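Board notes, transcribed. Complex of a protein with flavin-adenine dinucleotide.
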Amino acid sequence: MDWSFPPEAEEFRTEVKAFINEHLTDEVISSTHEGTIHNWDFHKKIAERGWLGGAVPSELGGGGKSALEMAVMIEELQLAGAPIDGMGVAIVVASVVLELGNNHLKESIVPKLLSGETLVSFGYTEPDSGSDVAAAQTRAVKDGDEWVINGQKMWTTMAHIADYVLLLTRTNTEVPKHKGLTFFIVPLNTSGIEIQPVHTMGTERSNATFYDDVRIGDEWRIGDVDGGWEIMKAALKYERGIAGGQFPSPPLIDAFVDHAQTSKRPDGLTIIDDPVVRERLVRALIDVEVCRGFAYNTAFLASEGVMFGVEGSMTKLFASESYKKHSKWFIDMAGAEGLLYLGEDEAPVGGLLDEHFRHAPVTTIYGGTSEITRNLIAEGLLGLPRTR
Ligand SMILES: Cc1cc2nc3c(=O)[nH]c(=O)nc-3n(C[C@H](O)[C@H](O)[C@H](O)COP(=O)(O)OP(=O)(O)OC[C@H]3O[C@@H](n4cnc5c(N)ncnc54)[C@H](O)[C@@H]3O)c2cc1C
């Protein structure tokens, strides 16, 4: 089997690696541990290279990077531990607006998103609807030329640094739940919106957002009234392009290997001398290689024009569950000091072991929980009956 990429994708990989060497400084990486996995300077530098616009399909007017180039870019950025949450959302929303949005949205939002000037957040989940996202209850009611929005969203990550929210609302209660939804892109400085922080155990900050008689014009609607499910499907389609490649945390593996080679345990052995430690490190590295296989498979399918589905779910499930498993191993292998926090004296690997141990579980929740993802694989790949 020939696993090599075409020369243009490898040339692009070299370019991305050089970019990472130059711009992914320790300060940028540290900023990812301060609550939001986004760094404005780094994000703008990616935009300046044209890589945000480059990721938008050419038929929509974007730079049309190939699926293989996208895979290479996401792989290198993820493996280096770069903050790319803002980048992912910007590419997805710009693509959806270009495909299905009106001229007002195309002109007022897309250029700012792709130049890295502004961010948008996803407002799908509510206190009573997460996995069952179509059960959203936030109401949008037409009043003359305007819409009046009332409700609450949960986990509106990045809303506190974004200018907009892609908001899922209910516009019809008389039809089956998927058929009564409408999307809006709502400017977050509109009167009636309140953003409250939600701090996670993994130090990541998300938000609860509240909408109290929020009035916006019809030009902020995206897609048809009651046609929101089409927008949701389009957003998922573009999200797959970004999420096709996911990796457990290799920077953590490398850092732990350094630590294990130099640190002594109370019994006088160097940590790496323990065969259990060596086996776990090898298993972790094998998991990274498996993720590479998943990523290349989805990129290959996309490059052949195949809209992959269950393959993306498999990648997400394997990468996030591996990350959770590895982060627990690292804590175990480091001994009691592994529990020391980021920045505490004597914390091995600068406290990153504890940081990742607390962060990894959320990756098995957002973007679809592991249970939901297993259901999708069971139904889509194994042909098992629907569970709901
Ligand atoms: C840190 C963080 C950031 C997030 N960021 C965003 C964001 O930016 N925008 C946004 O809109 N959302 C965001 N989310 C929300 C995320 O997508 C949801 O939390 C997730 O989809 C699960 O929904 P829920 O929390 O309501 O749990 P529920 O859907 O209530 O699920 C609870 C449990 O039941 C299980 N379960 C539910 N249904 C089934 C089923 N049919 N079969 C088997 N098991 C099932 C789930 O797997 C889970 O274990 C974020 C979440 C977190 C934790």
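The two ends are 40 Å apart (CA to CA). The longest helix spans residues 275-303.
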